[in-house]
Amino acid sequence: KIARIKGKATLSDNQHGTHFPDSIGLYADWRKPGHVWETPYGTLLPEKVRGILVAGRSMSTDGDAWEVYRVIPAAAMSGEAAGVAAALAVEHGCEPDELDVACVQDVLRGNNIKIHLAELGL
């Protein structure tokens, strides 16, 4: 069994197509055409441990969402966001859970990452 965190937010079954203001990227369900997931920043932040970020199959997901996010492309997407957030936390002298997620989103958008479903017309 794969260990995963309980995060400040958790993606669960049937949350594809759901808007999250703190999204750090989009991920398409590789099993179901048309199902696209916004990825809340809170899924990278452990609920009780500060100072770290978790990406890929160990981020806070369960059920169907875990099945979607357990693969390498999702790890790359969430890993890029975690790396950006870690660098910004050091730059701003704060913990990752204290960051203004808009700063993370701005850097990711500068890297041509789509953050919200509306940016794809969904």
Describe the structure using short key phrases.
single chain, 122 residues, alpha+beta, 3 helices
Summarize it.
It contains three helices and two strands; from the N terminus they run ββααα. It is an alpha+beta fold. A hairpin with a 7-residue loop joins strand 1 and strand 2.
Can you put this structure into words, describing what you see?
This protein is α+β, with helices and mostly antiparallel strands and 122 residues long. Helix content is 30%, strand content 9%. The chain contains 3 helices and 2 strands, in the order ββααα. It has helices spanning 64-69, 72-92, 101-110; strands spanning 23-28, 36-40. The protein has a two-stranded antiparallel sheet. Strand 1 and strand 2 (36-40) form a beta hairpin. Helix 2 (72-92) crosses helix 3 (101-110). The longest helix has 21 residues, at 72-92. The N and C termini lie far apart (34 Å). The model has no long low-confidence stretch (mean pLDDT 95).
